[in-house]
Amino acid sequence: DKDDVLRYAERLSSRCLTVDVLVKVQRDPIQEDALHQ
Fold it and tell me: In terms of domain of life, where is this protein from (predicted)?
């Protein structure tokens, strides 16, 4: 049971990190365009 919970927590945290990176990567070019205008 503990292993399942730990595995699930790892999967969630890694997914959150992936989403964070994707959001930052997608947001940066938009912010740069806004700054240059």
Answer: Eukaryota
- In the chain, where the domains are located: 1-37
Please give the chain's pLDDT, 37 residues, in tens. Answer: 899 999 999 998 888 788 888 777 777 777 777 777 7
CA distances to 17, 18, 21, 24, 31 from 7, in Å: 15, 16, 21, 26, 36
User: What pTM was estimated for this model as a whole?
Assistant: 0.46
